[in-house]
Amino acid sequence: LQTLALPEIGLTAIFLVSFVSATLLPLGSEPAVFAYVSVSPHMFWPAVVIATAGNTMGGVVSYWMGSGARRAYEVWQENHPQADTDEQSKNARTSRWHHTVQRWLAKMGPPALLLSWLPVVGDPLCSVAGWLRLPLGPSIAYMAIGKCLRYIIMTTFLLWVFPMLGWGDWSV
Predict the structure, then answer these.
(1) What is the mean pLDDT of residues 113-133?
(2) Contact at 8 Å (CB) between 111 and 142?
(3) Rounded Cα distance, 149 and 142, in Å
(4) CA distance 134 to 144
(5) Above 60 in pLDDT, residue 89?
(6) Is the per-residue pLDDT at 105 higher than 90?
(7) Each residue of 34-49: pLDDT tens digit?
C-alpha cells in the first residue's frame, strides 16, 4: 500500500481503475479511491479529480461505442432492408421498455447523464447517449459533474463510517 500511496503511482492507478470501471466491465473504482485517500489523506482532492477524469473518459469511450454501434446498425440496415423489416415487426412487440428508456433519454438530453454514476445503469446510459447522438460536449460535462459528486460523497462517507480503522484523522 505504501507504494500505491506515492502520488505519482497511486494517482495513475486510480485513473486506470476509474477509467476501466466506467466501461461496460464490472469493476468498482470507489474502493481504490477510498484506500488511496485512507493512506494519503492529504491527497483527497487530487484523488477525486483524477478518479473523476478517468471515469469520465471511460464514459466517453462508452458513448463512442454507442455511437459506433448506431453507425454499424445503419450500415447493416442499408445492406439488409428485408431483414430489418422482419426485425422491426418482432421488436415492436417485445421492446416497450427499450423505447420508453430511449424516449426518456432523448427528452432529457445530456442532463440525464448526471445519472451516469449509478451502478448497473450508468455505463449503458452513456452508450445509449452515443446511440442517440446526444451532443458530446454537454454529455461529457454532465457525466463529469455526476461522477465527481459521486466520488466526493462516497469517499467522504466511507471515511466517516470507518474512522475506527485509523482512517478518521483526515482533513479535506
Answers:
(1) 89
(2) yes
(3) 11
(4) 15
(5) no
(6) no
(7) 988 888 888 899 999 9
What is the per-residue pLDDT across 13-23, written as a single tens digit (0 to 9) for each? 899 999 999 88
DSSP one-letter code for 121 = T
- Per-residue DSSP letters for 89-142? HHHHHH-HHHHHHHHHHHHH-GGGGGGGGSTTTHHHHHHHHHHTT--HHHHHHH
Cα distance between residue 14 and residue 147, in whole Å: 14
33: alpha, beta or left? (left if phi > 0; alpha if psi -120 to 50)? alpha
d(CA 21, CA 166): 27
Where does residue 166 fall: left (phi above 0), alpha (psi -120 to 50 degrees), or beta otherwise? left
| Residues with Cβ within 8 Å of residue 136, at least 6 apart in sequence | 60, 63
Amino acid found at 79:
N
C-alpha cell of residue 5: 500511496
In whole angstroms, give the CA distance from residue 114 to residue 146: 4
